[in-house]
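Researcher: Let's do a round of design. I'm pasting the structure tokens now; please hold your answer until I've finished.
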């Protein structure tokens, strides 16, 4: 793990999504996380419908926005209070 990733992981709270084998398999299925990336931290809002969330891996950060957030940004309605909240 590189220095930047180590510092980031120290600043983050524990993973809101429990990283069990079952959840990791779901994350890989529903989020665009390559199979050769090790998942270190995840905050997945829902595994049903259109999953959204944030995943930190050993090689980068993967984000997937909700359809609602994407529609608002396309319509120009993405005001400060509607922006995606990230750590």
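Researcher: That's everything. Go ahead.
Model: Designed sequence:
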């Amino acid at each position: 793990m590189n220095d930047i990733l180590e510092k980031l992981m120290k600043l983050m709270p524990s993973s809101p999504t429990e990283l069990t084998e079952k959840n990791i398999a779901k994350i890989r299925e529903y989020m665009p996380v390559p199979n050769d990336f090790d998942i270190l931290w995840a905050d997945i809002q829902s595994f049903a419908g259109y999953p959204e969330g944030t995943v930190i891996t050993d090689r980068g950060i993967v984000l997937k926005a909700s359809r609602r957030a994407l529609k608002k940004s396309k319509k120009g309605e993405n005001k400060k209070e509607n922006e995606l909240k990230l750590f």
